[in-house]
Design goal:
This protein is α/β, with parallel strands linked by helices and 329 residues long. The chain has a single domain, classed as 3-Layer(aba) Sandwich (Rossmann fold). 30% of the residues lie in helices and 24% in strands. The chain starts with 5 loop residues before the first strand and ends in an 11-residue tail after the last strand. Bound molecules: iron/sulfur cluster.
Length: 329
């Protein structure tokens, strides 16, 4: 990847949380939410991060946004390590990185009007106030498919899809470079999901945005993303372009996720890889390959040695000891 074109670089990032075993005990345990994660993304890219709940994808997003301090590691935005910045400079960088949350109702202050919710970032960053702010809010509401008439109204007066549009308007009003969207459509009806996905695609084209889309839903990721990261228990297990990942997945976990996508064809009988058991606890992750407790292809080495993330083919990175995946199991 040409270094000029790199918007975001994540280097050996770890985020551990200390948790208590019980209210009455001083004993502390360590939860390995994100464990040695590295990747880069290009300016203009739509990068998907996918995995089951508890795999660390949302924590990873919050550390990249500097909402959580890292345990160790670096995040470079346009070549600048954001964890080394003084607060004032970090605020400036944060202006270029905005977030869209999963639950469009919980993320909007119910006591604020739409005008104040969408216009608040302009005030926080000292970009506009008064009449200028109002004009900008009206313009952005039109851009996301709402009208300026909704400005005096409150979040409870809107449907889920409209509330997500308000959340998107708030995120784009200060012209960010990167938007991190955490499960942006999973709380919406299926009929509304496609509208919001199309809105995100159109805004990317119009405003030159880059996105990180976090989702457990591989169908949503396939619609939106150019490149995909698959995470399992705090680690990256596979990185590939969307075409490669969906046509030639390599890691057994990716294969299992893909084989669980429903296909609207009653005659289609896909080869399913069933995963047995629950995802292990990130407090006490398995030794060796973290996936070995559920992997149908595991062999001796898997329990002892952690596989490295290596480039098996050009731009296709996989963390698995197998040289090739058996045709079926
Ligand atoms: Fe399965 Fe072993 Fe590959 Fe892990 S390293 S995914 S356990 S085959």
């Amino acid at each position: 990847m040409s270094q000029d074109n790199v918007l975001l670089k994540v280097e050996s990032l770890k985020k551990y949380f200390q948790i208590s075993t019980s209210f009455f005990s001083d004993k502390k345990l360590i939860l390995h939410a994100v464990d040695d994660v590295s990747f880069e993304m290009k300016d203009g890219e739509i990068l998907g991060i996918v995995g089951e709940s508890g795999c660390g994808k949302s924590t990873l997003a919050r550390v990249i946004l500097a909402l959580y301090p890292p345990t160790s590691g670096k995040v470079f935005f346009n070549g600048i390590n954001i964890f080394e910045l003084p607060n004032k400079r970090l605020r400036e960088i944060r202006r270029q990185m905005q977030v869209i949350f999963q639950d469009p109702y919980a993320s909007l202050n119910p006591r604020m009007s739409v005008e104040n919710i969408v216009g608040e970032p302009l005030i926080i960053h000292g970009l506009a106030k008064g009449k200028k702010k109002k004009e900008k809010v009206a313009e952005i509401l039109e851009k996301v498919g709402l009208s300026a008439d909704v400005m005096p109204r409150y979040p409870h007066e809107f449907s889920g899809g409209q509330r997500q549009r308000i959340g998107i308007a708030r995120a784009i009003i200060i012209n960010p470079k990167l938007i991190i969207a955490d499960e942006p459509v999973s709380a919406l009806d299926v009929s509304i999901q496609a509208q919001v996905i199309n809105l995100l695609i159109n805004l990317k084209k119009e405003m030159g945005l880059s996105y990180i889309i976090i989702s457990h839903d591989l169908a949503v990721i396939e619609h939106l993303c150019n490149r995909i990261i698959v995470m399992y228990l705090g680690k990256i297990v596979e990185i590939a372009s969307d075409e490669t990942l969906y046509s030639s997945p390599y890691h057994p976990y990716t294969k299992a996720l893909l084989s669980s996508i429903p296909v609207p064809d009653p005659d289609y009988r896909p080869h399913k890889i069933s995963l047995h058991g629950e995802i292990p606890s990130p407090v006490n992750p398995p030794k060796g390959c973290r996936f070995h407790t559920r992997c149908p292809y595991k062999f001796d080495l898997c329990e002892k040695v952690e596989p490295k993330l290596i480039e098996k083919e050009k731009d296709h990175w996989v963390s698995c000891h197998l040289d090739s995946l058996p045709a079926s199991k």
